[in-house]
Structure formats: C-alpha cells, structure tokens
Amino acid sequence: MEKVRIAKDSVELPMEVRKEYLQNGYQLLQKYTKDSTYLKNLSQISIGGYRLKDSLFYRKVYKELSSRALESENYMILGEANWDMASFLKSYRVIDSSYYYHQLAYQSFDNLPTSSSSKYLKARMLYGMAQAQNDLKDYLGAESNTTKAIKIFDGLDDNQQLYGCYTLLGSIQSGLKNEEKALEYYQKAGKYLKSLKNDGFKWINKNNIALTYLRKEDYKSAIEAYEQLFKETKFKQQRPELYGKALVSHTYSRFKLGENSEELNQKYLEAINLYKEIDRTEDMGRAKQYLAELFVAQGKRDSGILLAREVNQFAQETQNNDRRLEVLKFLTQIDSKRAVAYSTAYYNLSEQIKEEERATRDKFARVRLETDQIIEENEVLSRQKQIWIGVTLGLLLFGIALFTIISQRISNNRLKFQQKQQESNQEIYNLMLAQQGKFEEGKKLEQKRISEELHDGVLGQMLGIRLVLSGLNEMTDEKSVEQRGELIEKLRETEEEIRTISHELNNASYQKIHNFIVSLEDMIDSIGASSGINCSFTYDSLLEWDSLEGDIKINAYRIVQESLQNCVKHAQCKNASVNFECEDNLLKLSIKDDGRGFDINKGKRGIGLRNIISRVKKVNGTLDIESKKGEGTTIKVNIPMNYAKQTEILEDLGAKQTAKA
User: Fold this and answer.
1) Which DSSP letter does residue 111 get?
2) Taking a C-beta distance cutoff of 8 angstroms, is the pair 572, 596 a contact?
3) Closest Cα partner for 208 from 172, 162, 252?
4) DSSP letter at 260?
5) Which of 70, 223, 459, 580 is disulfide-compatible with 539, CB 3.0–4.6 A?
6) Comparing C-alpha atoms, which of 596, 588, 602, 603 is closest to residue 635?
7) DSSP string covering 308-365, please?
C-alpha cells in the first residue's frame, strides 16, 4: 500500500501520477482476501480519492467501502466513509446531499459503544447537518441540531468545537434577522477562544461581531470593531480574503455615517483589486454594489447605475440570489426609467427564493423520513382498493396467526418431549449410580468376608497342621526329618502368602471407590474419543464425591456433558479441560476450551446454554461464562458446600491393618 500513501500525501507529484498510483493500489488490493485488513486499506484508498477530487473513482470506491462496512457491521469505517462523502459533496456545493450523508454518518456513529470518541463524532455530524441547513436557510432545523451538538461538546469540554457551534448559532440568528441574539452568540463564541492559540479563529470572531454591528446599523461600533481588527499585524498577510471583507464593511460603515470622500472610493477599489489577486471574484459583487451606492451619493448616478447593473448581471450568472435581491432593490430606487422592470424582477426572484426555501425544508423532511425508514403513504386509495387491501391484510394476518399458533404448539410439544426425556435420563442415571453404588458396597463386604475367612479359617487350620508336623518331626530317621522340614517350610510360605492377600483385601475395603468420578471419566473420555478433542479431567482427591446428594451429582454430570457437547458443536476447539475442586465452602467446577469463543452480550442463548443455567439454579449455584471471540470459553459453576460433605483421609491404613493382624 506504499503507492496509496504516496498518492495521498506526496503533493510534489503531478496530480495525474498520484491518481494513477491510487488506482494501481486499488487494483492490487482486489487480489487480497476481503477481511478487516482489506476494509482498512480500502478506507485509505477512499480517503485518497476524496483528497484528489477524482469524482468517478472516489464514488466507485465509496460504494464498495460503505457496502462492505455495513455488511461487516464496522460502523466506525462506515461512518467515516459517509462523513468523507458529505464533505466531498459540500465542496461541490451539493448541500442537500451533504446533509443526507452527514445524517447517515451520524447513525453509523450512533451504533458505536458509548464513549467520549463516539460522542464527539456524533456531535461533529450534528454540526455538519446544521451547517448544511443554515446554508439552505432551514434555520429552525439548523438551530435544533446545533443545540444538540453544544450539549455534547460542553460535556467533553471541547472549547474549539463550542466556538464553532456558537459562531454557527450567531450566523443562524443573523439569517433570522435577530441581530441582537446573533451578537450575543458571537461574543459567547469569543470567550471560548481565550484557551485557544489560533489567530485565524480570533480574526473571524472579531469580523463577525463587527459585521453584526453593521447589520444592526450601529455604524460607530462597527467602525471601532473593524479598526481593532486592522491593528492585527499579520491579519492582511495571512487572511487576505477576510481582510477584503472587513475593508469593504469598514468603508461602508463610514459611508453610512455620512462620509462620501474620494478616499472611500479608493478603499473599495483596493478591496476589488485584492479579490482579483487572490481569485475571489465571488466577493467582488458586494464591494461593487457599495461603490455604486457611493457613486450615487457623490452625484455620479450614471456610473452608479452602470456598476449596479454589472453587479446584477454577475449575481445572476453566479446564482447569488441574496446579492441580486439587494442590487435589484437598489436599482429600483436609482434607475427610474427601468424601475418597474427591476421591481417586477425583484418580486419574481423573492417569490422564487421563498418557493425554493419551502422546497428545501420539504426536502430535508423527506431525507429525515427516508433515512429513518418512516415513509408515509401519500396516495389516496379508492374505497374498493381499501376494502381489497383490508381483506388481503386480514387473510395474511389470519395466516400468520394460524402459522404462529401451529409453530408454537409444535415448539411446546418438542420442549415437553425434551423435558420428559431429560427427566427420564436423570432417573436412569440416578438408578445407574444407585446400582453401581450397591454393587461396590457388596464388593466391599465380599472382600472383607473373604479376608476374615482367610485369616480366621484357613490360616488357623494351616497353623494346626504346621504344629502337628512339628511334633512328628521328632522322629529320628533322616528321610522323615528332611521330608517334614520341606512340608513345614511350604506351609509357612503358604501361610505368609495368605496373610498378605488377607491384608490387601481388607485394606481395599477401606479405600475410596469414586463411582461418580468414574462415570465422569468414562463420559469425558467417550466425548474426547468420538470428537477428536483432547479432553482432560482433574479433581480434588480429598473429597468423597460419592457422598454428594443425587441432585448435585446428576446436575454436575449434565452440566459437564452439555458444555463438552457445545465444545464439539460450536467451539471448534482442540483442547478442553474439566476441573472439580473444593474451596471456601464451595464446590467449584470449571470447563475450559481453546475454541473460537463468542460475544456474550450479542450471542443468542441456545437450548444447551439454557439447560446449563437451569441446572445451576436447581442446586442454588452460580454461573459465570467468560468468552471472547478467538480466545476460547470458560464456564465456572460454584455450588454451596451444604450440598456435599468432605471426609478425612485414612492415613497409614496398611500399617494399621498389619499391626492388628
């Protein structure tokens, strides 16, 4: 994307070269995967097209960018794209469309999480909408949006934006011919400039205040304000267009106070020549109109009429209706021969402007309604059509209602079936655990019985045999002695072996047999083997898990089972771990995976998650789910200890049994 950066920022390159670089960057980008990185790069290309004023290319990129941003719900990029389009259209004076895209940008930023940044962006869009409304003389709408923006900027302590908003309010009030209020807003805007080191803003503010005095016909105050502005040493050099406006207004204020010397002519000509130098021909009309008024006051009526006609012609060509209205009114007063024609033109233009203003207000209303998808029906339907529409809607609603009822019944029956199935599964599992418990209990009893039989029966008999043989061993023949010695040794070995078996069997009868844990291990191993997920299981070996109440065991079992099934169905994980432990009078179990995770706030809760929540409630437990996209999921469940008991460990059991024997 180096070419894109060069195209955007390298002002020393020819414009055509920069445009070519930008288009090459766009073509290269098309080869990449359409992911978030693609969207960011496309946004940079869009900004480049906007800066280079390449209208066709910029509109093409904007269309793709806005579509992909909306599809991926990237409201930041979507809002910025609409903001750029609004600024682009404003530069071409397509004000109504600029308002429309400012509003789209506002709605995009409104979808962002609430923060100081998102609030700032929304306020900027409100300000942009208000500027467009002010330009098209929708003053009430402009005032409403500016006030909303001020409330936000005031909470953000953004003095620069507050200066802009109060300046705009001053312009709005001036458009409403409320110069006193306009002056109040301009002065309030000036207070926010004290913390800003920006001479340009200060000069604009002073000019606005002076111009308001002029419009109030307080010419003395206007002259004083302009003279204060002219004392700024860098004013003329850095802001020549504003200096020209101030020079014209200052000269006109002097004229209105009764001065009509040749010096005033020179001031107007100075301003006109300045506008020519900086190519600001659109500002010449005002200076020439005031010069025409001065000519008439100096007795140069013919020169004044000719100059006023020139201003009228130029205003008509540039569609500057406000200037044309003023000069037509002036011509009506000074050119008696054509006064009727000028008066008629003035009246027609005034009516045209009023009609355009009404059309503009209507257009803004339509834009707001269409953007908010509130489209009212304007056509008047005949009675017959209304009846047919009513019948059609009635049948449609009846069909929807019937479909909804049937679907609801099917859904209810399915839920009832699932509930019964879960109850049956729970009952089966409880029976399974009970049966397995009885089996283990019988096994322990049998082990103990065998141990006692071996110890008390077989060993006693063999001890007697050994004693008899020991007595017979007193026979003196060598062969008998040798044979009996061998038999006695074998009996002793057998006795020792049986004693060992007896101890082992008796010891086993006291060991913990975790039927619940075994069931969990079997289930976890089964899910891991069938799904290919590496499942691990750890638990607190100090806890007598089989002493848990039945509700705890079945619900814990089902929570683990449901969680692992979610791992298989949705998580796309490679590893999953299950952990049972006891801490702070709580039984804690956690199921963790390294899968793709999900957004907890936006994710829909399926029946599996609802079942987990329901089972946790049944045992008065608490549930905590931690998950982020791409970072896996952890489910933590805490169960109060009053649902279980913990036993002491039998220490040195083998040694104690040996000592008893």
Assistant:
1) T
2) yes
3) 172
4) -
5) 580
6) 588
7) HHHHHHHHHHTT-HHHHHHHHHHHHHH-GGGHHHHHHHHHHHHHHHHHHHHHHHHHHH
Q: In degrees rounded to 5, what are phi and psi of residue 544? A: -85, 90
Q: Which pLDDT tens digit goes with each residue over 329-373?
A: 999 999 888 989 989 988 898 888 888 777 766 666 665 565 555
Q: Round to whole Å and give the CA distance between 292 and 301.
A: 8
Torsion angle of alpha carbons 162, 164, 165, 167, nearest 10°? 120
Angle of CA points 117, 120, 121, to nearest 5°: 90
- Pure H helices in 73-197: 75-91, 95-110, 116-135, 139-156, 159-175, 179-191
Residue 586, helix vs strand vs coil: strand
Residue 425 or residue 542, greater confidence: 542
Neighbour tally for 193: CB within 10 Å: 19
Query: How many angstroms separate the CA atoms of 243 and 455, rounded?
Result: 119
The answer for residues whose C-beta is within 8 angstroms of residue 1's C-beta and 6 or more apart is 25, 29, 41, 44
Question: Could you tell me the pLDDT band of residue 655, with boundaries at 50, 70 and 90?
Answer: very low
Asked if residue 23 lies in contact with residue 48, where contact means CB atoms within 8 angstroms, the answer is: no
Alpha-carbon distance of 141 to 164, in angstroms, equals 17
Query: Distances from the Cα of 219 to the Cαs of 231, 254, 258, in angstroms?
Result: 19, 7, 10
Q: Is this model's pTM higher than 0.85 or not? A: no
Q: What's the Rg (C-alpha) of the chain?
A: 46
Residue 48: per-residue pLDDT = 78
Structural contact between residues 575 and 534, judged by C-beta atoms closer than 8 angstroms: yes
pLDDT of residue 458: 57
Please give the structure tokens belonging to residue 55. Answer: 């209208």
494 burial (CB, 10 Å; 0-12 / 13-18 / 19+) is middle
- Report DSSP state, residue 548: S
Q: Which residue's entry shows tokens 């599992």?
A: 429
- What's residue 653's pLDDT? 35
Collapsing DSSP to helix, strand or coil, 630 comes out as coil
| Six token digits for residue 129 | 């909408």
Residues in the chain: 661
Mean pLDDT along residues 282-296: 92
Query: What is the chain's mean pLDDT, rounded?
Result: 81
Mean pLDDT, to the nearest integer, of 561-569?
88
CA distances from 48 to 15, 22, 363, 374 (A): 12, 7, 31, 35
Q: Which tokens belong to 130? A: 């208000």
> Residues 10, 18: contact at Cβ < 8 Å?
yes
DSSP 8-class letter at 233: T
What pLDDT, on the 0 to 100 scale, is given for residue 12? 63
Asked if 584 and 555 count as a contact pair (C-beta separation under 8 A), the reply is no
pLDDT of residue 429: 65
CA 220/CA 233 separation, integer angstroms: 23
CA distance 580 to 540: 6
**Closest alpha carbon to 107 in 78, 141, 131:** 78
